[in-house]
Amino acid sequence: MRALVIGSGAREHAIVHGLLADPSVTEVAAAPGNPGIAAQARCLPLADVTDADAVVGTAREFAPDLVIVGPEAPLVAGVADALREAGFAVFGPSREAAQLEGSKAFAKDVMAAADVPTARSYVATSEAEVREALDATGAPYVVKDDGLAAGKGVVVTESIDAAVDHALACFAAGGSVVVEEFLDGPEVSIFCVTDGDVIVPLAPSQDFKRIGDGDEGPNTGGMGAYSPLPWAPEGLVDEVVRRIAQPTIDEMRRRGTPFAGVLYVGLALTSAGPRVIEFNARFGDPETQVVLARLQAPLGTLLQAAAEGRLAEQPPLVWRDDFAVTVVVASEGYPRSPRTGDEISGVPEAADDRYVLHAGTARDGDGTLVSAGGRVLSAVGVGPDLPAARAAAYAVVDGIALRGSQHRTDIAKAAAEGQVIVS
Asked: Catalytic activity, per the record (predicted)?
């Protein structure tokens, strides 16, 4: 199988890494890829991943048996539709199905129709409606940009002024907002691979969205993650498939917009049980880095089966017993105004228990590796328990030199110390 991955982040690097471990995959290319991917696979030029014609042209050049669309923006832009119309097998939902991520209001409507447990919510398009909704939900206030915001469109705050300011900023950008009640309890991410009918869930993970230790500071695209979750209730994955993922997939099919790809279910394990925080229409970043680090089943075979409607034929997934932790190394100024163009050194050679996945990196005119984005690298550590996996990941981070870089020091720390409580 020849596989083409669309995207350039650490998620796409993790997917390439996983595909190369599949004996059935003979060649992997990425468009546009990044310097880390280029060290393992072929990178093809692609100026804009949301340009459907350009993506199709790149696919025709490489002639893959499977195209995997990594980021959300091209999915919402309809790139998967264009690829399918051109005759390619594609892992990723259609434009209409991707609205589960592209519009939070749409996702809430689907959840209501499918009787999926989630937070009480209100769609607002004016300051008056926002204030009325905030009064109804009470503090902590949760305000979400209705559209795509790269993981940074959500504000959770005790300040009603901050909540209103965020809503007004979303309105100024031409969008609406969703105001919803705050959900207590630890968060969990579960990826559900689906062909539009059958669902194959992957192992749960947990990510860390805020920039600073102790969950302080603004939201980011994600500063780290770990898997599995030693504190997760027994039977959680089965419950999520039964109560959340399968009803959602069935409702999408009923609407005539079947969802085939990966449904990312972001949950809060509340005192009343699992509740959906959000759906995404693609693998999450940085959770993909740790989930795929543990997957022993052939990734290419799994994703091709989903793309071709053959998931029911697939054998059960096989997982490593090890734990995996990833720590994101971000540039100075991230998430508000990240520095770029700084030299990166100290990236180690890959080993079985630790390696680096590239995100915001590039080569300058001299071939030097430099920063080219907010989240620059993901350091992945694997070990027989969480402390060992954390130690492996942080050993990699400690060896990386990047001017002004920042990272969290507490990724998976509470779980490793048995401090995560599910009420």
From this structure: 5-phospho-beta-D-ribosylamine + glycine + ATP = N(1)-(5-phospho-beta-D-ribosyl)glycinamide + ADP + phosphate + H(+)
